Amino acid sequence: MRLLWGPLPTYAKLRGPHEIVEFGRRGVSYKDGETWDDLFARLPSGFEPDAVVWRFADTNAWPAHTPCPKPLIAILSDWSLFYTALRGILDACDWIITDRLGTDRLKAIGITHVQYWPGYAFDPGLCKRLIDIPPDYDVTFIGNLNHDIHRIRARILAKIARLSDRYRVAIRTNIHGRDYANFLARSRIVVNHSVRREMNLRGYEAPACGALLFMEESNLEVSDFLRPGEECVLYREDNLEDLLVSCLENEPLRARMAEAGWTRIQAETFRSHMAALLDLLKNLDLPGLCRRPKRWPALDEAERHYRYGKWLAFAGTQVVLGHQELTRAIQLDASNPEYWNAAAVVEAVTASKAANQDEQVRLFTSLAENRWLHLLKHWPGYVLGWVNLGLARLEFGFRERGVEALTKALEWLAGDSEGLILREGCLFYVESDPRNPTDFSMTRVEWERLAASCGADEARLAQELRAFLRWQCARRLGDVRLASDEPQKAKDCYAQAIHARPDLEHAYTGLGKCLELLGQNALACAAYRESLERQPWNFDVRVWLAGLLNQIGDSRGADQLASESLLLAKALGE
């Protein structure tokens, strides 16, 4: 079998019988924006692939305006972070390979040319046991600490950290290479919690380094590789601490399961998974895949530019190319508000990344703001336009105009107003927060989660989006009122946000601050506790709550909170 593989390298090198030519970051040159003809013209003389494998299509866009000369197979990884931008393009490929949850999510919206394959594994040259070296840690976690992406994991990690008064607990991030592998190998137990209920890297690497793996019970894939209770431990949020203590206090049991997990996982290397993938591809009916009826060519030209532009701008890194595609969609069909909104979001996000504030404001007011104003003049009921305009105005320093737009959005969201247009669309996700400097704010992550989880149920999706937008508008208005020294008005806004989405922590934090300013300290303490219940790693809230507890005479509560905070900090190595 001959494969053209890229733009990311293959998982592992294999000797025959397959021939693989790589492109992109390794091998044949290729850059975003080039055509299939550009790529195929550079192939080695005599090499004609049976198929093209496009690795991690969620963040690497293929040329969409012309059909691939050969069957196109897309491998998806972080689809959950880019779902709304990605799903509109997937019909254009011939076969999709992703994790088990992704397979289910795509089938739910009618994308049936999809198949499960475990996309992760471990490198035996890196992940090894440290023989005759006793572990330095009892319980560890290593991974991304962006709690906006991992809200459940944040609570899980707090449970682990609270054990650091009895055990050697370490929670770490940004450790790589040999240091990373050694950290796992120096651990008795590694607690893991995946993003998409997949068997992620740590699921393989922890047992390969000799540690006992703890994986969430809801994981859809781990049981394919490790036997629960014999080679790993599956936990829930409500029994994690008991299971950890049970294993830590019974070293023979822990060691026996860790040894069994190490033995079992040795077969799950990147080389073996790559071989399994090639067998999967070899058994596909490639000519039959190409004959599959596709909706993509039947879409009108403007819609194809729109979908491709969203993918380029919001899933990949080619924002300029994406903006060009969205602009072309508007030129071809100026009657669709979604096209206008998407272009404005791209322009506002781009403006937010300009070098200085003056340039940011200039770009926003001259491009994005004008585009949203045009949109809302012609489609005043397109509520996402009001939301985005308000959020962007606040981000660029236009307080009163931002409040005006968000207030208008809430009016539209309050009832079933005639003319209301509520669609998934593109959300302006930029939100300055020193605790999370990435593009993946809670706003963006939750927007993607809702779209993916609702599938083809449009009524449920509309209901979920309405609640989330009400939460977002109300809590941002609360932020503005609080910053303007209007605690009573801010309190009402935060209460409205909590009514819309009581599961999200941000509005509780603002509500607590308002109540504190209003002298309602006991209620403020309750609000802060609700915030920490949902996101226990906000140390600012911990400081505020401890101060209030002392003020109301609850020194015992303040001491307990301080002790817990020290345990969390200790687990972080601070």
Describe the structure.
By secondary structure, this protein is of the alpha/beta class. The chain has helices at 36-40, 83-86, 100-108, 151-161, 177-185, 201-208, 240-248, 251-265, 270-282, 286-290, 301-315, 319-332, 337-352, 357-378, 383-395, 399-413, 442-454, 458-483, 487-500, 506-517, 521-534, 539-551, 555-571, and strands at residues 2-6, 19-22, 51-55, 72-75, 95-98, 114-116, 137-142, 169-172, 187-191, 212-216, 233-235.
**Share of residues in strands:** 5-15%
Structural class: alpha/beta
Number of helices: 23
Please count the beta strands (DSSP E, at least 2 residues each). Answer: 11
Q: Mean pLDDT, as a whole number?
A: 95
Q: Report the helical percentage.
A: 40-55%
Order of the strands making up the biggest sheet:
2-1-3-4-5-6
Distance between the termini: 53 Å
| Rounded Rg | 26 Å
Write the layout of secondary structure elements.
Blueprint: E1 2-6, E2 19-22, H1 36-40, E3 51-55, E4 72-75, H2 83-86, E5 95-98, H3 100-108, E6 114-116, E7 137-142, H4 151-161, E8 169-172, H5 177-185, E9 187-191, H6 201-208, E10 212-216, E11 233-235, H7 240-248, H8 251-265, H9 270-282, H10 286-290, H11 301-315, H12 319-332, H13 337-352, H14 357-378, H15 383-395, H16 399-413, H17 442-454, H18 458-483, H19 487-500, H20 506-517, H21 521-534, H22 539-551, H23 555-571
Parallel strand pairs: 1-2, 1-3, 3-4, 4-5, 5-6, 7-8, 7-9, 9-10, 10-11
Helix pairs in contact: 11-12, 12-13, 13-14, 13-15, 14-15, 15-16, 15-18, 16-18, 17-18, 18-19, 18-20, 19-20, 20-21, 21-22, 22-23
